């Protein structure tokens, strides 16, 4: 009797299992048909674009750039089995729509916020709504002050004179190969720590360049592992691993613990010192008396992320390009020589350039802007659609879908930059009078974002990058030591880094 009942129940059980499966296939098929409005990877029922995503995971930027270049609208869909479609665009009209016209409809959203929350908390780069507005207001005021600009300029000059130049001179005298990307990250890390909370972690010492850096290495690991969450083909998996505290999630928790402990120690020692005339960002945020220890920690971690990873990423790419472009190096040196002319009569030749002199570096500024165009630190930035919308190019976006603008691809679009878009050409930023000219629209060149979330530290980033570029190019020659032939590849963290670093030999000029 029991056997008969089981056999009779089998069709019913099979139906209960197959109906949800058929329903999911139908839904995914409808989504794949919608996707075909825009050229892109072939979408398979149930699997979506998962096979192509896995096959191109290590070259995601170039893969999606090729797809966007082939799309008449500059927009594509990427679908997966576990999450709603992602709309990726390199269309400036869509970017302006997202970041300005309908700014409130495209917040950071839960997907990104949840993936980064353990690391960044509710800091300015991971916050939405009123919490973001409050931090933005404080930061906007502080970044606009002359005292902050002067504080940043002096911190950069001091780090160059006492750390970066001696480190490079020692490497040149010993004739050793150094990882320039690592040195630049250590330089930027020391610099932003001084600016953010007036602490010197001494990650770049004048000898080996490998000063104490547990905080830095943990910060780097936390960044990469957090990005791994966002790139996961199956988001439920990283949540399960976090619950069980295993694998990458175990390493992420350990790294975040080190970062937060370091930041918390600094905050606790500073809470009673905010009124003593300090100029660092932490003191300025703490001065309002409304920020809790946890919120101050999130502010500090966010600013370290922006200050360390962004400028070092651009400078590493700039020097990599300059290693094969002696014509550009020659023009930068000619510009620096002209600027030196006025100071040499005052006995200042050879010193680090001061703020007023940095303003005269038009060609150098153009070279840095080219590095930013082709290798933006934040290569793809995503938002979440809060309510159903239609983008200017006709793309329909449903509530809860992720919409991302692809700054890396935009720097390689013929429609935006012309047929020479792949060429590194600083002259595109110089006008007829030899002066630097900015991009005609931040929505065509969103390397510092655009709209209400435009990067507040843009001017300070250029101060640091021009100071370092001038000090390096004026004093040293460089040869990339890349026996494996892999230099220049992409390593996707929260910012774009060079895979394997930038191994170089440096030599003193003259």
Major beta sheet, strand line-up: 1-2-7-4
Q: Write the H/E string, N to C.
A: HHHEEHHHHEHHHHHHHHHEEEEHHHEEEE
Helix content: 55-70%
* Number of contiguous helices: 19
Average pLDDT works out at: 83
Structural class: alpha+beta
User: Rough shape?
Assistant: globular
Report on the biggest sheet: 4 strands, mixed
- Low-confidence segments, given as residue ranges, are 1-7, 26-37, 206-211
Portion in strands: 5-15%
Evaluate the radius of gyration: 25 Å
Total DSSP E strands: 11
Distance between the first and last residues' Cα: 98 Å
Cofactor: heme
Protein name: Cytochrome P450 94A1
Family: Belongs to the cytochrome P450 family.
Pfam family, one: p450
Could you characterize the architecture of this molecule?
The chain is built from 19 helices and eleven strands. It has helices at 2-35, 50-55, 60-70, 92-101, 109-120, 129-143, 146-174, 180-197, 214-231, 235-244, 247-270, 281-286, 293-322, 326-344, 355-358, 362-374, 407-410, 414-417, 458-475, and strands at residues 75-78, 86-89, 177-179, 380-384, 389-390, 396-397, 402-406, 476-480, 490-492, 496-498, 503-508. A four-stranded mixed sheet has the order 1-2-7-4. The longest helix is centred in the N-terminal third of the chain and has 34 residues, at 2-35. Residues 1-7, 26-37 and 206-211 have low confidence and may be disordered. This is Cytochrome P450 94A1. Keywords: Heme, Iron, Membrane, Metal-binding, Monooxygenase, Oxidoreductase, Transmembrane, Transmembrane helix. Belongs to the cytochrome P450 family. The chain crosses the membrane at residues 12-30.
């Amino acid at each position: 009797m029991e056997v008969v009942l089981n056999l009779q129940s089998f069709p019913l059980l099979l139906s209960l299992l197959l109906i949800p499966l058929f329903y999911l296939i139908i839904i995914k098929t409808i989504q794949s048909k919608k996707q075909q409005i825009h050229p892109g990877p072939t979408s398979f029922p149930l699997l979506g674009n998962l096979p192509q995503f896995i096959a191109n995971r290590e070259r995601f930027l170039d893969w999606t750039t090729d797809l966007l270049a082939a799309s008449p609208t500059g927009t594509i869909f990427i679908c997966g089995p576990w999450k709603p479609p992602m709309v990726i665009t390199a269309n400036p009209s869509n970017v302006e729509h997202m970041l300005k016209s309908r700014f409130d409809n495209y917040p950071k959203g839960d997907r990104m916020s949840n993936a980064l929350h353990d690391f960044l908390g509710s800091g300015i780069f991971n916050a939405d709504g009123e919490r973001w507005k409050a931090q933005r207001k404080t930061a906007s005021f502080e970044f606009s002050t002359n005292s902050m600009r002067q504080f940043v300029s002096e911190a950069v000059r001091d780090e160059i004179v006492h750390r970066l130049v001696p480190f490079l001179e020692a490497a040149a005298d010993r004739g050793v190969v150094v990882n320039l990307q690592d040195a630049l990250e250590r330089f930027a890390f020391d610099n932003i720590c001084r600016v953010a909370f007036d602490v010197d972690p001494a990650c770049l010492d004048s000898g080996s360049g490998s000063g104490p850096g547990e905080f830095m290495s943990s910060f780097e690991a936390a960044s990469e592992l957090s990005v791994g969450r966002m790139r996961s083909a199956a988001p439920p998996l990283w949540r399960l691993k976090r619950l069980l505290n295993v694998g990458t999630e175990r390493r992420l928790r350990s790294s975040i613990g080190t970062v937060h402990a370091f930041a918390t120690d600094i905050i606790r020692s500073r809470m009673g010192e905010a009124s003593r005339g300090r100029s660092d960002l932490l003191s300025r945020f703490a001065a309002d008396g409304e920020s809790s220890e946890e919120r101050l920690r999130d502010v500090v971690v966010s600013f370290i992320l922006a200050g360390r990873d962004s400028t070092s990423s651009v400078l590493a790419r700039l020097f990599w390009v300059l290693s094969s472009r002696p014509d550009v190096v020659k023009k930068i040196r000619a510009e620096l020589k002209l600027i030196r002319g006025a100071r040499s009569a005052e006995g200042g030749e050879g010193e680090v350039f001061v703020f007023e002199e940095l303003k005269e570096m038009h060609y150098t500024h153009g070279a840095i802007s080219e590095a930013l165009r082709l290798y933006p630190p934040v290569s793809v930035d995503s938002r979440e659609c809060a309510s159903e919308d239609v983008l200017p190019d006709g793309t329909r976006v449903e509530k809860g879908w992720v919409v991302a603008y692809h700054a890396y691809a935009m720097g390689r679009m013929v429609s935006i930059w012309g047929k020479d878009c792949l060429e590194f050409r600083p002259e595109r930023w110089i006008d007829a009078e030899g002066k630097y000219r900015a991009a005609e629209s931040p929505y065509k060149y969103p390397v510092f974002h655009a709209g209400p979330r435009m990067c507040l530290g843009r001017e300070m980033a250029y101060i640091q990058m021009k100071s370092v570029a001038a000090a390096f190019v004026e004093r040293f020659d460089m040869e990339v030591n890349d026996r494996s032939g892999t230099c220049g590849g992409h390593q996707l963290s929260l910012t774009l880094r060079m895979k394997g670093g930038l191994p170089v030999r440096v030599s003193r000029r003259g």
